[in-house]
Amino acid sequence: MAAGSAAVTVTGVSAGSAHAAVPASPGVSFTNPIAEQRADPHIWKHTDGYYYFTATVPAYDRIVLRRATTIQGLSSATETTLWTKHASGEMGAHIWAPEIHFIDGKWYIHFAAGEAHDIWKIRPYVLECGAANPLTGTWREKGRIALPLDTFSLDATTFVVGGVRYLSWAQNDPAVGSGTNLYLARMSNPWTISGAPVRISTPTAPWETAGHRVNEGPAVIQRGGKVFMTFSASATDANYCMGLLTASASADLLSASSWSKTANPVLRSNDATGQYGPGHNSFTFSEDGKSDIVVYHDRDYKNISGDPLNDPNRRTRVQKLYWKSDGTPDFGIPVADGVTPRRLSSYNYPDRFVRHWEYRARIEADVSPLADSQFRTVTGLAGGGTVSLESANFPGYFLRHKNFEVRVEPDDGTARFRSDASFHARAGLADSAGVSYESSGFPGRYLRHYDYLLHVQALSTATDRADATFHTR
């Protein structure tokens, strides 16, 4: 493995002018985890230039908030306690899954809470703040969201489609069976639903029923006339995972038949990256507004002693959300801790990405699985200001050239491997907004594609330089 991560320092002078557009969604990088011991994370990007971050704390006794001008800055931002559980009665236990929203000029936090002497009598509640700065303003209790069915209910989220505000939440219905289902209703204001709710998802598949029958933690993102609702399933251990519901934005969202569910999870535990139980996500945007970011929690170990709800070590993490050519989201895998990976698209074939296929490196469109085309830029194995490109789904494997053909292979600890897997990141030879990779051991030879396969070659023509130029995504 590499000794650490490296910010890419691009040097050199572009040998040509840009002809391909810089990607609409350029690469972004974060260092995970964003916050230790913070579960059910919710990040709101506000118009005041700040990101606001709240999450469940392990003591289940309060609601906290922090803010920063960058997502990464939330890691070190001061945390403020906004509200503390009641000593008795309602809202006296199990303070779970707060979400912060700005609605009609005011701040609202939706959260779940139990009763002090009946901790599993969990229901959804709302707080309101009229101040511009929710960290210093006064928060007032708006009370419980009244639901027609007075049973275990939690994880309320709110969103707007077609000018209509909705509330979605998880709830148990004894007539349906054990566990929780997902429900949806219109809202007349941020703490009141109107009309009859509809059940839009019930846990039935094996990946939804491992340990417990669970559909919970809904979160919504919209794109291309579609409404995508993620949700979490199964017990809160390594079985915890995320599924996806999809509906047309023009459909009747209060008709269960408008929603379709994925046959398999869209994000689940990954032994290779050491991430377990990813789930209860939210969505936000990158600082430049050009990339969608998925926010979620997981653990960095698989085995838990006792009830997972008593294990405090769920951590908040972020990574870029990608979109397939058919307009559906691609979550990939929960990436390894540390610097998040990025993708490299070809300058002259912008729909094709560097990927490995049976360990041979090539460029290809519509890469599946996504992680085959994700690489972490780390400190060069050969040192000397170089970088190395580590596979996202095969940590410890790097792009290296062997007889000038580029493959993904594990670091064998030799000087030859370190040299062959190290590159100088240069300004893109065909577009200075891109990047080109010059071989550390063979100056003048660059990583380039030829007949869609990657090689390390000397360059002489404009086509060569274009083939050796990439954009980060």
Automatic annotation (TrEMBL):
Signal peptide interval: 1-20
Pfam families named among the record's database cross-references: AbfB, Glyco_hydro_43
Family matches, as SUPFAM superfamilies: AbfB domain (SSF110221), Arabinanase/levansucrase/invertase (SSF75005)
Keywords: Glycosidase, Hydrolase, Signal
UniProt family annotation: Belongs to the glycosyl hydrolase 43 family.
Protein name: Family 43 glycosylhydrolase
InterPro entries found in the cross-reference section: AbfB_ABD, AbfB_ABD_sf, Glyco_hydro_43, Glyco_hydro_beta-prop_sf
Domain Alpha-L-arabinofuranosidase B arabinose-binding: start-end pairs: 343-471
